[in-house]
Amino acid sequence: MNKKYVVRLTALERRGLQDMVRKGRAAAYKVRHAHILLLADADGPAWTDERIAEAASAHLCTVRNVRERFVEEGLEAAIARKKQCRPSRQRLLDGEKEAKLIALACSEPPQGRARWTLHLLADKLVELRVVQSISLETVRQALKKTC
């Protein structure tokens, strides 16, 4: 079977990966990715993806992804985890909304209260229609970050 992404390691890359696997001082996923690349090397063992997955205790997709990242982006990208293109969830408080929260927290508390509480701040943000709903933890983290 012709592989679309053929791994060819230089002597220096191979030596570095062998040291990483032998010492085992890196994160477990980095050691596993290094092991995958060593086994996939076309000038070395040139194992099939299925055999590599079994030997490295990795999923077949992981083997294919590591091989593809090595060919497309280089050694460092293949060893490290893939960075997220965008966050899993959009931030609820962007800069403008966060500024409104801080201004609210710095203002006078409601009548009959000595200070703003997280509950009061969250309720006020909803009341002012800054957000539809907000958790106390989101309010706390935003205030902790800025104060």
Brief descriptors of the model:
single chain, mainly alpha, 2 domains, rod-shaped
Would you kindly provide a written description of the structure presented here, covering whatever features stand out?
- It is a single chain.
- The chain is mainly α.
- The model has no long low-confidence stretch (mean pLDDT 92).
- Helix 7 crosses helix 8.
- Helix content is 59%, strand content 0%.
Short description:
With 147 residues, this protein is mostly helical. It contains eight helices and no strands.
List the helices and strands and how they pair.
Blueprint: H1 11-23, H2 28-40, H3 49-56, H4 60-73, H5 75-79, H6 95-106, H7 118-127, H8 136-146
Helix pairs in contact: 1-2, 2-3, 2-4, 3-4, 6-8, 7-8
Biggest β-sheet strands, sense, barrel: none
Strand % is: under 5%
Mean pLDDT: 92
User: What is the CA-based Rg, rounded?
Assistant: 25 Å
Number of domains: 2
Helical segment count: 8
Q: Give the CA-CA distance, first to last residue.
A: 60 Å
Shape summary: rod-shaped
